[in-house]
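step=encode ok
step=design start
structure_in=
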C-alpha cells in the first residue's frame, strides 16, 4: 500500500513539473523580426470542377408537347467511366405516353372524318353531275320545240324561245354551281388531309422523343452528376427541367477550375489576374498554382445564413490525373505583395487604446503597424531586423518599461495615413468640381494652395505630367 502511494506521489510530481515547464517555455518563446517581401492573401475553401465539359441531355423537344419536367427513374453511379453510346439514365415517360395515346385517338377521329368527308363530297358532286345531264337534255328538248314552232303562230313561237332561254340559263347556272361545289369539296378534303398529316407527324415526333428517355453517353469520359439549384447532386426521383434537360456531364479533366465563394468583407481585395496557391484536401502533399479568372459582381446569400458571398472562379495551371471534380481545395489568393518591409507574428502585438506595442528582452516598445495577413503583420516603425520579441506577454509584463516612439516619427506616419484617406482630385479638372469656388484668373499654384487649405489631396492629371 505504501509503495502504491509513493508511486502516485511520484506520478503527480512528474505531471506538475511537466505542466509547469511547458508553461514557462511558452512564456519565454522569442521570435526574431523578419524582413523581406510580405504577402497579403485571402484564404478560402473551394471545389474542383472541369473548365469545360460536354452535357449529357434528355429529350429537348418536350416543351412542344407542353411537358415541363420529367422525373429520373434510374441513373448509373456518379464517377462511372462510360464509352460512347453507353446507358446513363432512364427518365419517366408516362406523361408523354399519355399524350401519345391522346394523339392516336385524335388520329383515329381524323381518319374517320376523312372518310366521311370523302363520301359526302362524292355524293354531292354526283348529284350535281346528274343535274347537269338532266338540264342538258331539257335544253335540247327546248331547242327542238323552237325549231318546230316556225309553223306556229307568233305568240307560240315567242313562248318557245322564252322557254329555251330559261333552259340555257338554268344549265349555265348549274355548271357554275358545280364548279363551286367541286372547289369546296377539294378544300374540305385538303383541310382534313392537312389535319391528319399534322397529327401523324406529331405522333411520329413523340414516338421519336420517347426513345430519348433512355439517356446515353455522347462520348467516352467519366460521368459527373449535374447539381440542382441548391448545390446538391441529382438523384433518382429528382426532376429535370425541359428548359435545360441536362442530366449529367462528361468533364474535360485536362483543364480544371476551383470554384469558391468569398465573403463580402474580403471580396474587395480579390481581382481577376491575381495568383493563387492551391492545395487539395485529398492529397495534402500536392501543391498547384492558379490565377483568378472571374469575380462575380453580384453577391448571393448562403443557405441557412445571413452572410453574403461572391463566386470566384480560379483557373488551375497544372494538369494532374488525380484531380477529380468535387474535390475540396484550399485556395490562397495573393491579393498584394509588398517588398522590403519588417514583419512579425500577429500574436506578438499588444494593444492599449490607440497604441500598439511589443515585448522585447529589454522591455516594452511602441510600434506602428501596417497591413496584415492571417498570421503576420507589417511593422512600419519601432523595431529592427533580427530584433527578438516575445510571442506572448511574459509573466512580468506589467513591470516592463514602455519605450515610446519619437513624436516626429508618429506624426510622419499620421500624415501619410491622412493623405491616403483624403479624396483624390484630378488637378486637370479642378474647375469642374462642385463645392469649391475658383476665380478664372487664379493660377495653378493658387488653386493648389486653396485645395491644401480644404484638406483635399491633389492627384496629378495627364496635363500636369
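sequence_out=
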Amino acid at each position: 500500500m505504501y509503495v502504491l502511494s509513493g508511486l502516485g506521489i511520484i506520478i503527480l510530481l512528474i505531471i506538475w513539473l511537466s505542466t509547469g515547464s511547458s508553461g514557462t517555455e511558452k512564456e519565454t518563446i522569442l521570435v526574431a523580426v523578419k524582413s523581406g517581401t510580405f504577402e497579403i492573401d485571402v484564404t478560402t475553401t473551394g471545389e474542383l470542377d472541369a473548365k469545360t465539359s460536354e452535357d449529357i441531355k434528355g429529350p429537348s423537344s418536350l416543351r412542344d408537347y407542353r411537358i415541363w419536367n420529367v422525373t429520373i427513374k434510374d441513373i448509373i453511379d456518379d464517377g462511372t467511366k462510360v464509352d460512347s453510346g453507353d446507358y446513363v439514365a432512364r427518365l419517366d415517360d408516362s406523361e408523354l405516353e399519355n399524350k401519345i395515346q391522346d394523339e392516336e385517338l385524335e388520329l383515329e377521329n381524323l381518319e374517320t372524318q376523312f372518310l366521311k368527308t370523302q363520301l359526302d363530297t362524292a355524293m354531292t358532286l354526283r348529284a350535281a353531275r346528274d343535274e347537269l345531264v338532266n338540264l342538258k337534255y331539257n335544253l335540247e328538248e327546248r331547242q327542238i320545240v323552237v325549231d318546230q314552232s316556225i309553223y306556229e303562230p307568233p305568240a307560240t313561237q315567242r313562248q318557245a324561245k322564252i322557254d329555251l332561254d330559261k333552259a340555257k340559263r338554268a344549265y349555265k347556272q348549274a355548271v357554275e354551281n358545280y364548279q363551286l361545289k367541286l372547289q369546296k369539296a377539294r378544300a374540305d378534303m385538303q383541310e382534313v388531309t392537312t389535319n391528319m398529316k399534322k397529327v401523324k407527324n406529331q405522333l411520329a415526333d413523340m414516338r421519336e422523343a420517347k426513345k430519348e428517355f433512355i439517356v446515353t453517353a455522347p462520348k467516352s469520359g467519366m460521368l459527373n452528376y449535374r447539381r440542382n439549384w441548391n448545390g446538391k447532386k441529382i438523384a433518382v426521383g429528382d426532376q429535370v427541367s425541359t428548359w435545360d434537360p441536362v442530366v449529367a456531364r462528361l468533364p474535360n479533366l485536362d483543364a480544371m477550375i476551383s470554384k469558391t465563394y468569398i465573403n463580402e468583407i474580403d471580396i474587395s481585395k480579390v481581382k481577376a489576374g491575381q495568383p493563387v496557391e492551391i492545395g487539395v484536401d485529398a492529397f495534402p502533399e500536392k501543391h498547384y498554382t492558379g490565377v483568378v479568372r472571374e469575380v462575380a459582381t453580384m453577391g448571393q446569400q448562403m443557405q441557412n445564413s445571413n452572410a453574403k458571398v461572391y463566386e470566384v472562379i480560379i483557373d488551375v495551371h497544372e494538369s494532374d490525373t488525380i484531380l477529380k471534380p468535387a474535390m475540396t481545395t484550399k485556395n490562397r489568393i495573393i491579393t498584394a505583395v509588398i517588398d522590403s518591409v519588417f514583419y512579425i507574428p500577429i500574436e506578438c502585438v499588444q494593444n492599449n487604446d490607440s497604441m500598439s506595442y511589443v515585448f522585447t528582452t529589454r522591455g516594452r516598445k511602441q510600434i506602428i503597424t501596417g497591413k496584415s495577413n492571417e498570421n503576420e503583420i507589417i511593422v512600419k516603425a519601432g523595431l529592427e531586423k533580427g530584433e527578438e520579441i516575445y510571442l506572448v506577454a511574459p509573466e512580468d509584463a506589467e513591470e516592463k518599461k514602455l519605450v515610446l516612439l519619437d513624436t516626429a516619427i508618429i506624426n510622419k506616419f499620421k500624415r501619410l495615413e491622412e493623405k491616403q484617406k483624403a479624396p483624390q482630385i484630378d488637378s486637370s479638372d479642378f474647375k469642374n468640381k462642385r463645392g469649391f469656388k475658383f476665380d478664372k484668373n487664379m493660377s495653378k499654384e493658387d488653386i493648389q494652395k486653396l485645395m491644401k487649405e480644404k484638406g483635399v489631396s491633389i492627384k496629378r492629371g495627364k496635363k500636369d505630367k
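step=design ok
step=annotate ok -> The first helix runs from residue 2 to 27.
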